[in-house]
Amino acid sequence: MPVRDLQSRAHVLLAGASSGIGLAATRLLLQDERVTRLHAVARRAGESEALAELRAQHPDRVCLHSVDLCDPKAVDQLVGEVGAVSPTLDLLFNTCGLLHADGMAPEKSLAQLRLDALQRSFAINAFAPILLVQALLPLLPAKAPAVIATLSARVGSIGDNALGGWYSYRAAKAAQNQLMRTLAVELKRSHPRACVLQLHPGTVETPLSAPFSARVPAGKLFSPEHSAALLLQRIAEASPADTGRFLGYDGSEIPW
Ligand SMILES: NC(=O)c1ccc[n+]([C@@H]2O[C@H](COP(=O)([O-])OP(=O)(O)OC[C@H]3O[C@@H](n4cnc5c(N)ncnc54)[C@H](OP(=O)(O)O)[C@@H]3O)[C@@H](O)[C@H]2O)c1
Please, what are the domains in the chain? Predict the structure, then answer.
């Protein structure tokens, strides 16, 4: 079962489903017949050939949503669309993230820091994950098991930061961690069977890591499929006692 102790079939929302780890996780989740409905979200979900293929293979199980998670109106509309087919969501897996884009690269030094890059990174890496949970909260079961898992990054760890650089991305992931940790504390009271997890996927061969992957030592660069399988294992074994933890793909604790 994708969520531990779940007694019913699972309804899942996977944000970031069009690429990299999110696409690999989408494929793996659809191999599990107990996943009744999978809501696949990305800005251009409707244009993704890979998602169109999955939808054609599983027309009754896959719903595609083209949504920019940095747009609050689009997120509200998403909640309506999801709620119309899924009475509750058992797993919310957010794999969205941004490290570089046109005109935006991770900073090597303070001199390269720009306000617009900070804002862009915080919008998707920090603000979008918590605002997505806020919007979807009415669909999260208050008394049944549920998991809210978000992909963070080891470079977002303050305690582990010995190398420096990458100011915007590091800071935005650290902010994401704090926002989700705060959520975990609140949900302990209102949703005692829920588990909020922050996960580091490893260094994974995706468009996000492509400009930097040449420097990764052999054997340390995971395929999206390998990383997604390990992350789904972490999610499936998580219990409410694990809520608020920041874990690596192998289950090891990452310092905040
Ligand atoms: N790859 C690594 O080595 C690595 C290492 C540590 C942490 N991570 C984290 O792991 C997660 C997944 O990374 P990845 O490597 O799989 O990245 P990726 O291949 O670039 O995929 C990112 C996904 O996020 C979606 N997305 C981006 N902005 C969005 C927005 N505003 N609204 C909705 N969807 C949006 C993209 O879809 P559209 O473009 O269609 O919107 C895409 O599906 C990220 O959080 C990343 O920070 C990755």
Answer: 10-248 (3.40.50.720)
